[in-house]
Amino acid sequence: MLILECPFCGIMADETELAPGGEAHVRRVGPEGSDEAFEAYLFMRRNPCGVHFELWRHAHGCGRWFIAARNTLTLEVYGTYPAQTDRPPAAIVRAIRRRVPGWEWQP
Amino acid sequence: MGPAEEGRQKAGGNVANFRSSAASSLGKRGAALHVSSVIVILSGAARVSRPPCRSVVEAMKRYSALAIAREAARYHRGWERAWASPEPKGDYEIVIVGAGGHGLATAYYLGRNFGITDVAVLEKGWLGGGNTGRNTTIIRSNYLQDPSAAIYEKARALYETMSRDLNFNVMFSPRGVMMLAQTEHERRGYLRTVHANALQGVKTEFITPERVKELVPIIRIEGPRYPVLGALWQPRGGTARHDAVAWGYARACSAMGMHIIQNCEVTGIVSEGGRVSGVETVRGRIGCRKLAIVVAGHSGRLAEMAGFRLPIESVALQALVSEPVRPVLDVVVMANTVHGYISQSDKGELVIGGGTDGFNNYTQRGSFHHVEETVRALVETFPIISRLRMMRQWGGIVDMTGDRSPIISKTPLEGCFINCGWGTGGFKAIPGSGWAMAELVARGTPGPLAAPFGLERFREGRFIDESVAAGVAH
């Protein structure tokens, strides 16, 4: 059972309280985008075996979106932060590097 | 297949399955044509009339009633290993990554349909130890879209004769698959599917709640939350022994001289000038002219090694089995609204499948609340199971695509092909998938079964949308 802390209301929310929203930090492609870019935006996913950033909504709580930094291989949670963030905060990156030495954020 | 033979298969199939197919390969072929004539036309009759690779028939020590009697007389000391475990050669014409059902079926049809036997199947764990050994073994072909119906019906038809084709009892049991309509929306959806199936030549019908109760006496059709409004019924759907499918293919491949190499994880893909030339493995580099990636939940990792991305997300799907009980259920029942699928195994265990998790996962462990939801819904539908103890529960990593249809395709890397995206329902497709993938790998261009399932469909917006018809339930 996944338990994530909602960064807005501070509650340790059980998975049943949350709604998953898929990969985070996916850049929306505008009207000027190529077919390839649009395809990548809509369908192509990193689907990493390891460090992963994922959107969640505190559906049965405050209702707001946040991002969870998790590991898909160990099910560790490194931390959560508001969805209105365009890259993982420094504290999250440090938490990840403590467990996965040398890990680099790739936009 | 005549009614008498059908009866035998339903009763366990051992007698029919152990009959020698060496002497009657022509007769067997006739039977295959008879049961699947519609699909044979769809997928090209020429392929079916081609003789099997002779070595399949000759090199394998055949299983038969006579062999059992002979071995019984000498305390069963004469049985041989079903497949060899050779050391890898330096290179092969074709390397297949993944010795699950789909990978082994690909290898088998490369040999049988195209006479290519310089093939290695690499497996990081043990043979059939991934999703092939973890599913709920449901076989059906009642899909909405034409490309899906064609490939799943091809697979179902191949399952009908698989035990004889492989000389290995895969215990195919066409006991009938029933998909319950428990909302008005679902009822209309299934009526549409029945009409589509009629046009596709897939035999299905929409049955009334009374008929559902007749076929499944333990069901409660009146609700309370989700009354049964009818069901989509495929009488020739059913189940098979999942491990036996992998073992049967492995044995046939090994007999053709192919190498099945277990405990051989692929750690890198080697290419020269945009063309694949081999793979790095934990047992050294293995060269190949063509590479087929057939690794389900780990497709994304292999694609990363090959330098491209896939429209795939890996999530956990769970199943569980109860303690064995006396026969209570002789069809497969799928309740898609509440994500519960149930059938009874030959040992008497109730085999139960649930829904997928909503988040990416590579751990083969799912969330408990999905099991809870599934069991809650099934107890409501089948009140007599409420006191059953559950014996085992497990998870597998399934590869979900955006349109819930598979990918059988060339890739941006020349000579590298991929077969993935079967998501929650790959087991039923194993023979059809292998058939289509073998054709793609052997010829370099997809045949009629594989053509609609190319990777480019996502860019082109040409989806094979099975989300409505199949949902998570496969």
Description:
- Chain A is α+β, with helices and mostly antiparallel strands and about 110 residues long.
- Chain A has a single domain (about 5-100), classed as Folate-binding fold, CATH 3.30.2270.10.
- Chain A has two helices and six strands.
- In chain A, the strands form two sheets. In chain A, strands 3-4-5-6 form a four-stranded antiparallel sheet. A two-stranded antiparallel sheet of chain A has the order 1-2.
- In chain A, strand 4 and strand 5 form a beta hairpin.
- Chain B is an alpha/beta fold and about 475 residues long.
- Chain B has two domains: about 5-140 and about 145-170 and about 245-310 and about 410-470, FAD/NAD(P)-binding domain; about 175-235 and about 315-400, D-Amino Acid Oxidase, subunit A, domain 2 (D-Amino Acid Oxidase, Chain A, domain 2, 2-Layer Sandwich).
- Chain B has 17 helices and 18 strands.
- In chain B, the strands form three sheets. In chain B, strands 1, 2, 8, 9, 10, 11, 17 and 18 form an eight-stranded mixed sheet that branches. In chain B, strands 5-6-4-13-14-15-12-16 form an eight-stranded mixed sheet.
- In chain B, a hairpin with a 5-residue loop joins strand 17 and strand 18.
- The interface between A and B is medium-sized, with 27 and 23 residues.
Looking at this protein, list some descriptive labels.
heterodimer, A: alpha+beta, Folate-binding fold, 4-stranded antiparallel β-sheet, 17% helix, B: 474 residues, alpha/beta, FAD/NAD(P)-binding domain, D-Amino Acid Oxidase, Chain A, domain 2, 2 domains, 18 strands, disordered N terminus, disordered C terminus
